[in-house]
Amino acid sequence: SNARGRPERTRKRERERLYRRIISCVNYCCTGGKSPSQKLLEIIGARTFIFSERSPNHKVRRKRVGFSHINSAGLSDSLSSYRERQKPCAVILMGLPGSGKSTVKTNYFHHMKNIDPDEIKSEHESWSASLSHTDPKLDRKIHVWSVRTAVNRLRRSVKRKEECILDASGSDCLWLKDQIETAKDEGFYVMVVYVVVPLEIALRRNRARIGFGSNGNTHATSRDSKNYVPESVLKAKAKCMQDSFSRARRYADEVWAVINFSTKEVEKVFG
């Protein structure tokens, strides 16, 4: 029995060590390395962790749900609750490239109008995927245009009482506050949803979108290569994301942080 128990105890210690590392990653992602104002509730399964808060009293809502079960609990409960109050909902979606925002949008907010500045860029007649390398000035000009267009579409949507989700990755706090207040002024219930992964895991996923050659050079082999983001841009977004989230969540009616990475990814990246 001792022979059997020892490996089991070893596995338990390794699992606890890994979970502590994950919690450390999550706290860092959500608070920028500062002490979290809310404790991460607990580890939910192997893939997803959720903590949430509600304003104005910020009572923490405990939910034991896994990523594949949120359809019957968690976020879906919140979607039902605001509908019962007959309030339209606007969602501000945050997260690094590679965090899984598209999955969250598809699974839980597919019924809402999607307003994504990155997708809007492709509507510009001068846009191309390589523009950031070939013509940085034009790329910046199109970026500014896409953000303005996104704001205009958000305003039109809330005027029409049309539920919408705004991808606000990398946006600063003041800009986010303006968009939240725009929706609230029209009687909307505003949720901020932050899809969290550590920067190291986001970089790993981002690199996988284009593949790597044997000499270390990248080459576009993946079907997802169009979603690749230059690493300098991704790192810059990571620097402002934590601060934007910690400040913007003060103005929302409800805030969710969906931590979307696996224990295997943590093992590969952090050892």
Q: What characteristics describe this protein?
A:
271 residues, alpha/beta, Rossmann fold, six-stranded mixed sheet, 10 helices, 48% helix, globular, P-loop_NTPase, Zeta toxin domain-containing protein
Question: Which SSEs are present, and which pair or pack?
Answer:
Elements: H1 2-31, E1 48-54, H2 75-84, E2 89-94, H3 101-108, E3 113-115, H4 117-121, H5 131-134, H6 136-159, E4 164-167, H7 173-185, E5 189-196, H8 199-208, H9 231-248, E6 254-260, H10 263-270
Helix pairs in contact: 7-9, 8-9
Provide an overview of this structure.
The chain is an alpha/beta fold and 271 residues long. It has a single domain (2-270), classed as Rossmann fold, CATH 3.40.50. The chain is 48% helix and 13% strand. It contains ten helices and six strands. It has a six-stranded mixed sheet, sandwiched between helices. Helix 7 packs across helix 9 (231-248) and helix 8 packs across helix 9 (231-248). It is globular and about 60 Å long. The protein starts with a helix and ends with a helix. 34% of the residues are buried.
